[in-house]
């Protein structure tokens, strides 16, 4: 029986999300369907419903995993920035976050699109309201990087409030234009120039 085969691997919810990740990587959020995910996981359609009430719940679970992948790349890139603590390193880490974000979007467009589908987290989460974001969530990493700039004396405290929205919107906008918008066919040299320009404008604005 398909259901017995599925439960044999011991963690059906994980297997369903893994299958959803595979589908999303190739086709984005539109490729994630309960029937196809169940088939790939080797279980019956009804077995999947025991863990995810509907399609939206499954997509949200896959979206969270895609966001985790984005956050992991951003974390790895910032941790690779070395040097003594101070303004120079703080700016370099913020820059690395933005580059990692755009690089992920271009390298994994299916996961990038999915990460922002049903990713229902409120903007007030950092202020103690709403759902608590994971430690490596891009929004939390961005906030931490901006706080580091303040601590290093590179960003005046009076300019810190709300800076995360401007910075994220700028980089996400470029990523979306490169993945799904009119900039998707730019030559690589122009993509690099566009990214350099956006990050420079964010830096000057801060």
What can you tell me about this protein's structure?
- This protein is mostly helical.
- It has ten helices and no strands.
- The chain has two domains: 1-53; 67-205, Orthogonal Bundle (Tetracycline Repressor, domain 2).
- The chain has helices at residues 2-8, 12-27, 34-41, 45-49, 55-79, 87-107, 109-115, 138-151, 163-179, 188-205.
- The longest helix has 25 residues, at 55-79.
- It is elongated.
- 31% of the residues are buried.
- Residues 1-8 and 120-129 have low confidence and may be disordered.
What would you say about this model in short?
This is WHG domain-containing protein. This protein is mainly alpha-helical. Helices cover 67% and strands 0% of the residues.
For the record, the CATH architecture of the largest domain stands as Orthogonal Bundle
Give the class-level CATH name of the largest domain. Answer: Mainly Alpha
Strand content: under 5%
What name is given to the CATH topology of the largest domain?
Tetracycline Repressor, domain 2
The overall strand count is 0
Which regions are unreliable across 5 or more consecutive residues at pLDDT < 50? 1-8, 120-129
Per DSSP, the total helix count is: 10
Pfam families: TetR_C_33 (PF13305), TetR_N (PF00440)
InterPro entries: Homeodomain-like_sf, HTH-type_TetR-like_transc_reg, HTH_TetR, MT1864/Rv1816-like_C, Tet_transcr_reg_TetR-rel_C_sf
Keywords: DNA-binding, Transcription, Transcription regulation
DNA-binding region: 33-52
């Amino acid at each position: 029986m398909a259901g017995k085969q599925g439960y044999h691997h011991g963690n059906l919810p994980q297997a369903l999300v893994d299958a959803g990740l595979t589908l999303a990587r190739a086709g984005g959020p539109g490729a994630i369907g309960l029937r196809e995910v169940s088939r790939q996981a080797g279980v019956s359609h009804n077995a999947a419903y025991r863990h995810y009430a509907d399609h939206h719940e499954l997509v949200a679970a896959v979206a969270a995993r895609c966001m985790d992948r984005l956050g992991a790349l951003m974390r790895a890139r910032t941790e690779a920035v070395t040097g003594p603590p101070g303004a120079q390193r703080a700016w370099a880490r913020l820059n690395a976050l933005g580059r990692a974000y755009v690089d992920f979007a271009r390298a994994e467009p299916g996961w990038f699109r999915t990460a922002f589908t049903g990713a229902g987290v409120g903007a007030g989460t950092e202020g103690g309201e709403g759902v608590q974001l994971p430690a490596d969530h891009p929004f939390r990493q961005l906030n931490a990087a901006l706080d580091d700039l303040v601590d290093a004396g590179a960003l005046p405290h009076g300019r810190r409030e709300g800076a995360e929205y401007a910075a994220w919107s700028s980089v996400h906008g470029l990523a979306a234009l490169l993945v799904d918008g009119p900039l998707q066919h730019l030559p690589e040299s122009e993509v690099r120039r566009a990214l350099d320009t956006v990050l420079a404008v964010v830096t000057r604005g801060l």
